[in-house]
Amino acid sequence: MPSFFPEEEGDETPPTSSQSEPMEDKYSLSPFKSKLHPRKKSKSSTPKLQQMTLDLGQKMRIDCRKCGMSYDRTDTKDVQMHSRHHSAMMQGMEWCLRNPNKKGRLIGQHKLPKSSIDAYVAEQDVGSRKTSKDENEVQLWAFAIGKGQQDPSTFSVLQDVKNIMDSALGAVPIELGTSGERECQDKLIVAVWRDRVVGSALVGELPKSVDIYRISSESEKAVIIDTTDKAGWEKVPLAIHRIHVISILRRSGIASAMLDAALNDCVYGLDRQEVIRTIGQGSKANTTAFSQPTESGRLLAQRWIQEESGESNGVLVFQEA
């Protein structure tokens, strides 16, 4: 029967089957949950693109005249990358390898002339650094890079040194520890000064599967050398795959010092003078071959050869396989 009395506030009328609420809503702890917390519309996973720079036709990419790197000056990551590359090219890569005497050998030292030190200090922000009595001494370290001869952390540092050298020379990268079919006997020579790598050279044995050419300093014509017999190969005990010095310290004697140290260390039991006298027949030109040198590299080789005898018999050149 219909009720003639109005329902009191708070009374609940049992819902009919047609009005029954869903199970989850019926037993919800908060009957007003759906009103207080409406469902949020799903957002698109694609972020909105925002214009971070104002394009007024200005030049975004610039070329650094000193280090040669091209970078986008509006990109923070590009700017940071250029800063690291510029520092490595102009000041030298930071030498983070501690106790190098446990990983390699000190094979030479070189005294920098005062003019080179003054030029370096004027170019870099190192005026506040404390100086020592050995501030002009460059240490030359040699590291074996054959497979398994260095621990991973040391090998990573040497790989960074080699990568900087390849980048500066614009050379095709050579993977450290690989020498084709033969076991790798190559060494990486690192010139360290003020905890910076100011020069480096990749040296080793001459590959047996390449031809050697002699380039005369007068005619600049390449003449192939017959090296089919064993005696012919013994006349060229040292191969220079790469050699590089930072630009501000070139013509300071670092490159020649690395070549002398490499020649002094290339034949077991013989020092540099004995190698020149017995194998080179009195001339450096017969002891060392260079891998496809640039024009400046060829001039370096000629000056280094002439230091010993005053005469140049030409530069021996070979092509990487």
From TrEMBL:
What positions does the domain N-acetyltransferase ESCO zinc-finger occupy? 51-87
The biased composition feature labelled Acidic residues covers: 1-12
The entry's localization annotation reads:
Nucleus
* Keywords carried by this UniProt record: Acyltransferase, Cell cycle, Metal-binding, Nucleus, Transferase, Zinc, Zinc-finger
Q: Where is the N-acetyltransferase ESCO acetyl-transferase domain?
A: 235-308
The annotated regions of Basic residues compositional bias extend over 34-43
* Top-level taxon of origin: Eukaryota
Cited InterPro entries = AcTrfase_ESCO_Znf_dom (IPR028005), ESCO_Acetyltransf_dom (IPR028009)
A single BP term in Gene Ontology? mitotic sister chromatid cohesion
Q: Which GO terms describe its cellular component?
A: chromatin; nucleus
Q: Does the keyword Metal-binding apply?
A: yes
Q: Does the keyword Transferase apply?
A: yes
UniProt cross-references to Pfam families, sorted A to Z:
Acetyltransf_13 (PF13880), zf-C2H2_3 (PF13878)
Single GO MF annotation: zinc ion binding
Q: Where is this region: Disordered?
A: 1-50
Identify the main location.
Answer: nucleus
Q: Which family does it belong to?
A: Belongs to the acetyltransferase family. ECO subfamily.
Q: What is this protein called?
A: N-acetyltransferase ECO1
Which species? Meira miltonrushii
